[in-house]
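Morning F.,

Quick status update on the modeling queue. The single chain you submitted on Monday has been processed. Sequence for confirmation:
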Amino acid sequence: MELLIDTLFSNPVYMAIAAVLTILLIYSLIKKIIKWVFMFGVLLIIYVIYLNYTGQEVPKNIDQLKESVSESVDRVKESASESINEAKESTRKIVEEKVDKKLEDILGD
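Structure tokens below.
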């Protein structure tokens, strides 16, 4: 490791290459951070438009926004849970009907 560091600092060409790579790395990290901030902003704007369109109150501060988002997530969880339960029930009924039909075919009632 020391040999690598000594070689890097002793040769100006290696120093230039390391500097360029460091600048490119920092540039790519900043670019990704800006992209994430932009996407979060777009999602936040879409959420506010959704709240306005559905007639719900638009949050005025961060605490209200957190509460509103958590309530929305809870509603989605509840509806997803209900849908999954309904799908399980209908699947169970279909399987029971198929099993009964196969049993009738096998036993020859």
